[in-house]
Amino acid sequence: MKHVEIFTDGACQGNPGPGGWGAVLRYNGVEKEISGGDADTTNNRMELSAVIAALQCLKEPCEITLCSDSQYVCNAIEKGWAKGWRRNGWRKSDKSPALNADLWETLLNLLEQHKITIHWVRGHNGHPENERCDRLAVAAAERAKAGRQ
After folding, report:
1. Residue 129 pLDDT exceeds 50
2. Domain range for residue 117?
3. Which of 27, 103, 34, 109 is nearest to 65 (CA)?
4. Model confidence pLDDT, tens digit, residues 36-69
5. Of 17, 20, 29, 54, which is most buried by a Cβ count within 10 Å?
6. Which of 38, 69, 114, 127 is catalytic?
């Protein structure tokens, strides 16, 4: 099984507001940068979109190391929260609706194809790949904002 490193970040100018996401995929010394945005979104949706887009780039099941500064994404995957939300009809343990169910459904389906290890990294703390993804996400948010006006 191929080992792929994935680094992701999301950004939002206002929450909600124009947002962007960025990801770097690394396999066997080769890197690929991807990014995208939305004119009206939230930071958490952009964090999720970055991971989804990166996983959609993979052509076969892989062993993945995912590095993200989003505790929302990391904890919901690692601690099984997202699977629990799906099992409970996209409701949290307090019966309130789980947000971003559409993206979580897509992400959980993608994750089932791979073996994933999650690494949370502190954002804006000098982690080179996280800083790079942040720049990609902010630039994508700027493009989304410009398209909106």
Report:
1. yes
2. 2-148
3. 27
4. 999 999 999 999 999 999 999 999 999 999 999 9
5. 20
6. 69
Tokens of 115: 């073996």
The model carries a pTM of 0.96
For the packed helices 101-111 and 43-56, what is the interaxial angle rounded to 10 degrees?
A: 30
Give catalytic status of residue 63 as yes or no.
no
Q: Which amino acid is at 84?
A: G
Amino acid at 6: I
Among the listed residues 10, 17, 20, 37, the single catalytic one is: 10
Cβ atoms 123, 133 nearer than 8 A:
no
134 given a catalytic annotation: yes
Question: Of the residues 37, 38, 47, 114, which is catalytic?
Answer: 47
Task: Look up 47 and say whether it is catalytic.
Answer: yes
Q: How many CA atoms lie within 13 A of 102 on its CB side?
A: 3
Residue 127 annotated to the active site: no
Cβ atoms of 46 and 37 closer than 8 Å:
yes
